[in-house]
Amino acid sequence: TQLLEQSPQFLSIQEGENLTVYCNSSSVFSSLQWYRQEPGEGPVLLVTVVTGGEVKKLKRLTFQFGDARKDSSLHITAAQTGDTGLYLCAAGGSNYQLIWGAGTKLIIKP
Amino acid sequence: DAGVIQSPRHEVTEMGQEVTLRCKPISGHNSLFWYRQTMMRGLELLIYFNNNVPIDDSGMPEDRFSAKMPNASFSTLKIQPSEPRDSAVYFCASTRGGNTEAFFGQGTRLTVV
Questions:
Q1: Does residue B25 have a cis bond before it (omega within 30 degrees)?
Q2: For A86, which of A37, B14, B35, B36 could close a Cys bridge (C-beta 3.0–4.6 Å)?
Q3: Dist CA A60 CA A43 (whole Å)
Q4: Cα–Cα distance between B11 and A32 in angstroms, integer?
């Protein structure tokens, strides 16, 4: 069974601090996606990484795909209150389905 | 494009009643997914369709749950009879072609009392 484990499950930090959240698996994936979900809304795709070692930046967010394509990290620099939300990673399974991590709930305090 | 549209946004019903959730995928997307999200279990895939055909319904919890996709622009998820443990947020998502990047609706928050 392919599993994605996200850590930490919960993170609460002050505005302006940096943070990193992780998505790990024992399986190799062809691609991995990160989504952010705000309260009362559905998940919204942030980025897709496909190449081992790939780094993508989205403003203050930096996404990295592990060299072996088994893990990924999301680093936020100078967090803002607008970054608050549930961060989910997902990877391609069989038949175009996605395998989902349980998410990291991030709270940025003003 | 308006994105994936779900209705209703909120549903409160009594145990034993039939509940129907509706979804309109993004035009041109040929795969549609129904998910259920709870605090305890996170995001669970219930069923997905490709070109209107159900491909995998192994996530449907019980026979009380059924889903249909009569055409490319509409799908329903029905629970009959509903039970309190069905209370959750139900999401519909769609994807295009062989791409796994999913676009979600805003969800339906179902409360069964």
A1: no
A2: A37
A3: 19
A4: 33
Per-residue model confidence as pLDDT tens digits over A21-51: 999 999 998 889 999 999 999 999 999 999 9
Each of the 110 residues of chain A gets a pLDDT tens digit; together they read 568 999 999 999 999 999 999 999 999 988 899 999 999 999 999 999 999 999 999 999 999 999 999 999 999 999 999 999 999 999 987 666 789 999 999 999 99
State how far residue B74 is from chain A, nearest Cα, in angstroms: 18
Q: Do A41 and B106 touch (CB under 8 A)?
A: yes
Q: Is A105 an interface residue toward B (CB < 8 Å)? A: no
DSSP chain A: ----EEE-SEEEEETT--EEEEEE-SS--S-EEEEEE-TTS--EEEEEE-STT-EEEETTEEEEE-TTSSEEEEEESS--GGG-EEEEEEEE-GGG-EEE---EEEEEE-
A88: which chain B residues are within 8 Å (Cβ-Cβ)?
43
Is A30 an 8 Å CB contact of chain B? no
Instruction: Name the residue facing B42 among A41, A95, A102 (closest C-beta).
Output: A102
Q: For A24, phi and psi rounded to 5 degrees?
A: -125, 150
